[in-house]
Amino acid sequence: MTARTPAQTGTPATEAPDRRRWRAFAVAVTVASITILDLTKVNVALPSIETALGAASTELQLVVSGYVLTFGLTLVPMGRLGDQRSRRTLFLVGLALFTLTSLVCALATTSTMLLVGRLVQGIAAGIQMPQVLGLVQQLFTGAERGRAFGIFGAVIGLSTAFGPTLGGFLIAVGGEQDGWRWIFWLNVPLALLAMLLAARLLPRDPAGRDRERAPLQLDPVGVVLLGLTVLALLAPFLLTTGSPDDDPRRWWSLLAAAALGALLVAWERHYALTGRVPLIPFRLLRIPSFRNGTLLATAYFAALPAIFLLTTLFLQDGLGLQPVYAGMVSIGFALASALTSWYSGNLVNRLGRPLVVAGLAVVAVVVLGLAAVAHWVDAAAAPFVMAGVLLVGGLGGGAVISPNQTLTLAEVPVQDGGLAGSMGQLGQRIGTAVGTAVGLSLFYSTVYAGPADGDTVTVYQAAYDRGMIAVGFFVLLALAAGVADLRGRRTRSAQPAH
Hints:
With 498 residues, the protein is mainly alpha-helical. The chain is built from 20 helices and no strands. The chain has helices at 6-9, 18-40, 46-53, 57-84, 87-106, 111-139, 142-174, 179-185, 187-201, 209-213, 220-238, 253-273, 288-318, 323-328, 331-351, 353-376, 382-397, 401-409, 417-449, 456-494. α11 runs parallel beside α19 and α16 runs antiparallel to α20. The relative contact order is 0.12.
């Protein structure tokens, strides 16, 4: 009888040969990096897209925030679908859709066509990313799993920070008018190659009729209510252009967001009482460390991408720096963050929450430093000084994400670990969507309202200031959550054991 592979027999993928498992991991993490690159490499293309397609500020904001929003809203239900059905199939479906939407974006002739492509591209990213995380858990156990997640985190961190540099390089190669299209064209051959490798190397999911016949638990009503809540929250910022024609009634959307949020809470509690798994498990929020850590991560991810985005726009539009050089300013942050992430991961069990609070304090000072450089440093030297400031920011930022993840999940029951991790990912994506929408709204509305005959640098300095005020608010919110958690831990540790 011919021997059969673990993939054919349906045995756990952890029994697959070591080399095959790591090859499958390499394919998965490469696709994840392509997905994350699209979060940031488009940032440097916004001025070119505005020129080429005549995109308005609201459309430019949605090109960034819309991708992140649909990414986040799709991530949790698709993660559950992968757990209940086939991660491999969903991975390939998401990758195929990502390839198709990248092609649509590259060929876009209008800003509307580009926007629709980006929104669906975010859905594609949300389909495939949770399958990557699930595959890591399926392929590895014990120390190997920790090693795999460590490599995954490093690759994602570097992809996030190097995205603007890659985007700027592609614009330089393709030209100011159409170089932004190369950002999307690059995805097509990479994704097609990844599909071929994934079809060959990714393990098949364990077979079983019980798995196929079990009823799905995706909480679609919760997903819709959450999406409407976030859209209502974002709407007034997306519709703020600084024009006298801005409708003041747009701010009523915030009341709608509050009402929808209340309805979401009521539905989720009802859904949980029926014995099913809700989109947002409020029972986990009763754990102080998880609640504070999730709020911290959501606020921090509202700030961090906005820092890169606003700085890139200021350097390009305000100081006239070429996209490739504007993107390179964030390289120091990426390298420093990768270094301190490694060390902080080893220190977090000994130092605990003070490590994260210290890192956030450094990031808060860096936000002030970037605003000061924009005002007081000569335009020729500003990019270099900002790169140095961001290098310091990376030293602090590396002590935030990974240690906070460890502390946030430390008191969560083991059986709820996957659910808690999905909720954290959802918070990060929504935080990014809100942060970029608010920051860009303040930035573009200030530019639009600036005097037509005014000094360009002065106008963009004011726009950068307003955008960084929002960033500073989110960093301080994250810092407040960290301090609250620190005080709570000390209070609980001082109480006598029962």
